[in-house]
Amino acid sequence: MSKVTSLLAEHNRAGWLVWLTLAGSITFTVLLSIWLGQERSVTPAYCSAVENWFAGEPLYTMQGHGFLYLPQAALVFAPWAILPHSTCEIVWRLSIIAVLAFSVVRLTRLLNGDGRWYGVLSLAAAAMGWGCARNGQSTLLITGLMILAVVDLAESRWWRATILLAIAFAFKPFAIVLILLAAVIYPQMSWRLAIGLFVVAIAPFAMQRPDYVISQYVAFNQSLQITIDVGDSEKWAQVFGMLEVAGLKVPSSARTILRLIAAVATLFLCWKASRNLSPQRSAYYLYSLAACYLMLFNSRTEGNTYAMVGPVYGVLLAEALFQKNRGTVVVWAMSSAIVLSVLNYDLAVLITSRPDAIWISPLVCVGVTGYLVLRLCQDLRRASSARRESLKTGDSLSHPLERAVVLEKVRYPLAPVLRGET
User: Which residues contact 417 (CB under 8 A, 6 or more apart)?
Assistant: First the structure.
C-alpha cells in the first residue's frame, strides 16, 4: 500500500470514527436524560401522533406547536413508535444518524472525493447535526434522504430518487422545495414524482376510515396556516427573524414576495448548473441551493435545522483544503461558519436577549449562500472555457457523458492523485 493510499484510508477511518462518536455520545446523553427524568426530545410528539392516528383521534393541537406535519408522518414513524419508550428514543436516533452518515458517503463519492473529503464532510455534518440528533428531530433523516435522492438523480436512477423524495415528503412537507426543483430540472422526474406524491396522498386511506383521513387533511391545512402565522409573529432562525432582531420587521406580504423571488432565483441557478455542468456537480448545487433556500426562507427554521447545510459547508471546506488552488481565507471562513452555526445560541445570547438569540446561523448562511453562488459562477465560467477549448481542438462535447468527463477534469484536476492513481 502506498503512502498516499494509507493516508487516505486513515482519513476515511477518521470519518467513520466521527459517526461512531456521535452515535455513542447521543446514546449516552439520551439514556442519562431518561434516567434523570430530564428528557429533551421531540419523539413523544411523533409517538402521540401515531397513537392518535390508530385510535382515530385528532392529530393536531391547532396551537402552532407539537405535531405539525402531514398525517403520513404518523404512519412512517409507526415502526419506531411501537417500541418501548427508551428503545424507541435510542433506535430512532441511531436510525437518523445512520441515514445521514450513508448520505455523506455517497455525496463524497459523487464529488470524486477521497478519504480526506469524507473525514471533513463527516466532521461538519456531525457537528452541525448534534442538536437535531440530541432532540430526535427528523431533520437529519430528511437531510440524508434528500442527499441520497440528488445522488440518484446524478446517476439517472429516476425511480429510486422518486421513492426517496416521496418518503422525505411524508416525514416533512418542506421536502417539496427539492421535489419541485427536481420536477422542473429533470423532465424524466416530473411524472414519476406526480405518481410518487399521489401514492403518498392516498396511502392513509388504506389504514383508516375515509372520513377520518379527510378530516385530518382538513385539520392539517388549518394547522399549517396557524403554523405559518406563528412563524410570522415569532422570531425564528431565518432571514426575516434575523432582520427583525436588527430592528427591521418585514411585513407578511413582503415576505411572500421575497420568498417567491428567492425561489425563482434558486430555480434559475439550479437550471443553469444542470445545463452546463456535469451531472455530479449540478446535483450538488441542486441540493445545496435548495437547502440554503429552506434555511433562509422557511417560516419555522430553528437553530438545529441548520443541520441540513452541514454537508454543504463540509464540501466547501474540503474544496478549499484539498484542491490545487487552496484558499486559506476560505478555509478559515468555512471553519468559522461551522463553529458559529454549532454555537449559534450560546454566542448570540451573550449579545442579545434569549428570544433574539437566533441571528448567527442565518447570518452565516447568507454569507455561505453568497459564496456558493460565486462558486457556481466560477464553475460555469470554467465550463464555458472548456467548451471553447474543445471547439478550437475540434472535439465535441455534445454527448452528456463526454461533457461530464471533461468538466470533471476542469473542476477536479487532482482527482486521480487524490484517489491514489498514477
Answer: 4
